[in-house]
């Protein structure tokens, strides 16, 4: 089936199977920042934006992306790099496998929450798992990024 | 120092954070066959028939392989230096399946859907046998997990296959039983640290193809490229010269990727079909068909005299290695090796251990490697001892720990070269507020807060076994290329090894190109495990860089017409000490490498150590326990670390915070569980709970640097030691809070609640 969507500000027409998930479709079209790691909608690695809201692309059928605006980290080079620089300066990317999805969640949080408290930050990002860092370095980076350090 | 000791960002940091295509799957050829594995539904069974005809005939299926199609050479998936201590006890596919998830058939097809459809069409008949599920019943069980005649070991490891004993270990100095009789206080208890899953975010995966020379190339998410090469050669029965293993960026390992996973299956498909093949374990396979931490039973007995000096230690260990013996003897040995040297006022020490086969997923290497289990048991018992002696738990440690220049009873005369453990304990006490908070205080609403502590050590590399080589050369353009076999798996070793080289060569890091983890081009390195990289590979990089520096000075002096002692490094050039002449590295490169020079300057070194100097940590936990429900909240965790000189403070801190979080998971949340037929009950993140950012409280790290005389710039290791203190420290804090001493990990609210009912 064909879907028409906007991916990182570019309109595309893609053939997708009825049972195909968006994360797989995105990867097959070269958006390799999108990672999958859990198969059960738990880890947050596949986080992208649909119409500006973060969502798990492993759990959304590609058909549902028809006529939607999808954003991956490849579409936000400037904004993502600003935060990635801070994250990396803390050493808090470590293996980096969860970083793109995590960064997409952080950027969405910045758009959604005004002056979030530490508790609100932690709550917003709970769905982004990381096994390397223990989360402390990520929190330090977010505070610097939001200017609440 | 300009580079060493600086928090320099990882050289690959921005690429991986921004999602650039640098991991195994990203690099695979789009036409690679998809490899899937049919796995056993039974814990212990013999395949009596296997019919693949309906699957093979499916369009798009490239090949289906069963036990009839694999080489008949047993091997181990453990990534260890040759000769591997782990038994050669597995085939790529075997007629006997030994756990739920064991491999039955390999399916290769043009796409995943076809492969999965083909899998459903394979008909297998099994003769089901009685499995060994309880590791405490394994010795003497009527079922023998490995009855086969052709199982072999490279050397004696105490294997008795008819008794399901994989390996045995015994060490004894002095007369332990006599010494206990002389002790004023003797305490003992039994501990059950659980199987823990690594859950690295990038699951196991490998991509294989044949290159222009017909060699098998494996791009693998591994910590041990050279070991994977040797493993593939043995398993596939092809010469090692026909294999190249490349490690790209790795999405975490934690020891899991020190054991081979899908490489042999993809490799076999590529050899059989001549086509590229890709295997990706899904999360369920990663949980249920790879390895976990060894579950153990540890009995610890401690005796002390009136003044609180620990005089006798007895440790008896039973380790569950599961269906195959990957890392069984070495993890077992490390339980004692990385705990007993902590305390050296002893007069008698005994360690006795056995690892046993069961019909469950194999255990393997996991950050801490036996030290984690041993630390939980020993340190919990030391806390009991302190209570019996009415001593502060920090005081009994300070009284008994090994000091610099001292030996320990089982240490065969090896002297401790560096330690600031006493300062770590003092600093940790201060940071957690021990004096005010120990042991407990009521905070209202039925809640109580308490603190607990533990200390730990690990090694740095494997003494007399671990070696690493490094090569660094001056390139034709005046830059440098550092070649190392060390495997950065997110830990940052590509960066810290360049920091070391840059420090020696007095050049900015951007002048150094790092190329690592490729068995065709890297000098030999066993890989990143056993807390080796900074200490052993770092040592090799320092030596190689010094050799190159020496050669640069000598050549520059010759060109400038002065004696070697009359020149020195100055920026990107060598100049005479008098300052009147200089030659840039670029010019030196031009004159030596190009044209008439005919001499590329290369530094090369192999490093291996006779000692494995221990890093130390003092860990302190503060918990809040709800006395009505047993719920435990971790409020604060303080870890003060002696890893020698800290090469890169930010990367060391992240290593520590991440390791502590894994230790917190082990203490409170995580457990690999099986149902009554031996099927894993925790094969997704829905059942197996790793800590989320809400579950780790506050983790604070501080360093108390020592200077290790044998280490590069005085450095020791940090990668593993960080996982060890949370289970005993948190358990201690919970005991201090509500009086429940729970020795079965993890300490869930249910166990705390039930424990409180029994008080």
TrEMBL record, chain A:
Keywords: 2Fe-2S, Iron, Iron-sulfur, Metal-binding
Domain (2Fe-2S ferredoxin-type) ranges: 1-76
PROSITE patterns the record matches: 2FE2S_FER_2
Gene3D superfamilies for the chain: 3.10.20.30, [2Fe-2S]-binding domain
SUPFAM superfamilies, alphabetized: 2Fe-2S ferredoxin-like, CO dehydrogenase ISP C-domain like
Protein name: 2Fe-2S iron-sulfur cluster-binding protein
Organism field: Desulfosporosinus nitroreducens
TrEMBL record, chain B:
UniProt xrefs under InterPro entries: Ald_Oxase/Xan_DH_a/b, Ald_Oxase/Xan_DH_a/b_sf, Ald_Oxase/xanthine_DH-like, AldOxase/xan_DH_MoCoBD1, AldOxase/xan_DH_MoCoBD2, AldOxase/xan_DH_Mopterin-bd_sf
Name recorded for this polypeptide: Molybdopterin-dependent oxidoreductase
Pfam families the record matches: Ald_Xan_dh_C, MoCoBD_1, MoCoBD_2
Domain Aldehyde oxidase/xanthine dehydrogenase a/b hammerhead: 18-130
Bilayer-spanning residue ranges: none
Organism: Desulfosporosinus nitroreducens
Keyword terms, alphabetized: Molybdenum, Oxidoreductase
Record SUPFAM superfamilies: CO dehydrogenase molybdoprotein N-domain-like, Molybdenum cofactor-binding domain
């Amino acid at each position: 089936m064909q879907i028409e969507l906007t991916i990182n500000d570019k309109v595309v027409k893609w053939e997708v199977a009825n049972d195909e998930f968006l994360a797989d479709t995105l990867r097959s079209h070269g958006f390799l920042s999108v990672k999958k790691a859990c198969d059960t909608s738990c880890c947050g690695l596949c986080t992208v934006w649909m119409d500006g809201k973060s969502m798990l692309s492993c759990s959304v059928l590609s058909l549902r992306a028809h006529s939607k605006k999808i954003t991956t980290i490849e579409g936000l080079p400037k904004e993502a790099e600003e935060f990635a620089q801070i994250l990396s300066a803390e050493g808090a990317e470590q293996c980096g496998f969860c970083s793109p999805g995590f960064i997409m969640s952080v950027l969405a949080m910045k758009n959604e929450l005004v002056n979030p408290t530490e508790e609100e930050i932690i709550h917003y990002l709970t769905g982004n798992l990381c096994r390397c860092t223990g989360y402390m370095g990520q929190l330090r980076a977010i505070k610097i990024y939001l200017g609440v350090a | 120092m300009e580079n060493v000791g600086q928090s320099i960002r990882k050289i690959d940091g921005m690429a991986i954070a921004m999602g650039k295509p640098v991991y195994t799957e990203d690099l695979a050829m789009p036409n690679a066959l998809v490899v899937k594995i049919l796995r056993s539904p039974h814990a212990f069974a013999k395949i009596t028939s296997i019919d693949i005809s309906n699957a093979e005939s499916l369009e798009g299926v490239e090949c289906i392989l069963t036990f009839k199609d694999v080489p008949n050479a047993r091997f181990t998936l453990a990534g260890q230096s040759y000769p591997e201590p782990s038994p050669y006890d597995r085939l790529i596919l075997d007629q006997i399946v030994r756990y739920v998830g064991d491999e039955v058939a390999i399916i290769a097809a043009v796409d995943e859907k076809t492969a999965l459809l083909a899998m459903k069409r394979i008909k297998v008949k099994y003769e089901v046998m009685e499995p060994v599920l309880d590791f405490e019943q394994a010795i003497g069980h009527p079922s023998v997990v490995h009855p086969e005649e052709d199982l072999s070991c490279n050397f004696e490891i105490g294997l008795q296959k008819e008794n399901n004993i994989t390996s045995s270990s015994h060490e004894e100095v002095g007369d332990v039983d006599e010494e206990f009789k002389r002790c004023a206080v003797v305490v003992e208890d039994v501990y059950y640290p659980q199987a823990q899953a690594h859950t690295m975010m990038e699951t196991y995966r490998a991509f294989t193809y044949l290159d222009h020379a017909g060699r098998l190339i494996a791009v693998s998410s591994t910590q041990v490229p050279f070991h994977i090469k040797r493993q593939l050669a043995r398993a596939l029965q092809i010469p090692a010269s026909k294999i190249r293993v490349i490690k790209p960026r790795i999405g975490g390992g934690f020891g899991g990727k020190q054991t081979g996973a899908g490489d042999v299956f993809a490799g076999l498909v590529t050899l059989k079909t001549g086509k590229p093949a890709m295997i990706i374990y899904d999360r369920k396979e990663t949980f249920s068909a790879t390895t976990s931490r060894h579950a153990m039973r540890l009995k610890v007995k401690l005796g002390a005299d009136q003044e609180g000096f620990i005089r006798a230690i007895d440790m008896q260990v039973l380790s569950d290695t599961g269906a195959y013996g990957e890392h069984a003897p070495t993890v077992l040995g490390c339980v004692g090796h990385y705990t007993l040297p902590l305390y050296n006022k002893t007069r008698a020490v005994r360690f006795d251990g056995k690892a046993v086969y069961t019909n469950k997923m194999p255990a393997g290497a996991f950050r801490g490697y036996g030290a984690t289990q041993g630390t939980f048991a020993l340190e919990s018992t030391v806390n009991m001892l302190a209570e019996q002696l009415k001593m502060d738990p920090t005081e009994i440690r300070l009284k008994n720990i090994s000091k610099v220049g001292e030996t320990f009873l089982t240490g065969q005369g090896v002297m401790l070269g560096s330690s600031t453990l006493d300062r770590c304990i003092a600093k940790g006490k201060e940071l957690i507020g021990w004096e005010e908070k120990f042991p407990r205080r009521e905070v209202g609403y039925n809640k109580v807060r308490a603190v607990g502590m533990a200390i730990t050590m690990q090694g740095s590399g494997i003494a007399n076994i671990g070696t690493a080589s490094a090569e660094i050369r001056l390139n034709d353009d005046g830059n440098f290329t550092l070649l190392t076999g060390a495997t950065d798996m997110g830990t940052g070793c590509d960066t810290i090894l360049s920091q070391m080289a840059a420090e020696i060569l007095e050049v900015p890091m951007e002048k150094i190109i790092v190329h690592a983890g490729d068995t065709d081009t890297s000098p030999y390195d066993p890989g990143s495990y056993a807390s080796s990289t900074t200490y052993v590979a770092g040592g090799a990089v320092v030596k190689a860089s010094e050799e190159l520096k020496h050669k640069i000075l000598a050549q520059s002096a010759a060109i400038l017409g002065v004696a070697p002692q009359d020149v020195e490094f100055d920026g990107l050039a060598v100049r005479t000490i008098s300052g009147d002449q200089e030659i840039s590295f670029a010019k030196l490169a031009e004159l030596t490498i190009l044209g008439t020079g005919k001499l590329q300057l290369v530094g090369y070194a192999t490093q291996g150590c006779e000692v494995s100097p221990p890093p130390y940590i003092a860990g302190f936990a503060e918990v809040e326990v709800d006395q009505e429900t047993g719920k435990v909240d971790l409020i604060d965790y303080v870890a003060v670390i002696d890893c020698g000189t800290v090469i890169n403070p930010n990367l060391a801190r992240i290593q520590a915070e991440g390791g502590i979080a894994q230790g917190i998971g082990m203490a409170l949340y995580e457990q690999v569980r099986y149902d009554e037929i031996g099927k894993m009950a925790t094969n997704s993140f829905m059942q197996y709970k790793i800590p989320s950012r809400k579950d780790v409280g506050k983790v604070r790290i501080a360093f108390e640097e020592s200077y290790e005389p044998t280490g590069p710039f005085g450095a020791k290791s940090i990668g593993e030691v960080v996982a060890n203190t949370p289970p005993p420290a948190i358990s201690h804090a919970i005991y201090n809070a509500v009086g429940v001493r729970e020795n079965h990990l993890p300490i869930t609210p249910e166990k705390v609640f039930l424990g409180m009912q029994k008080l």
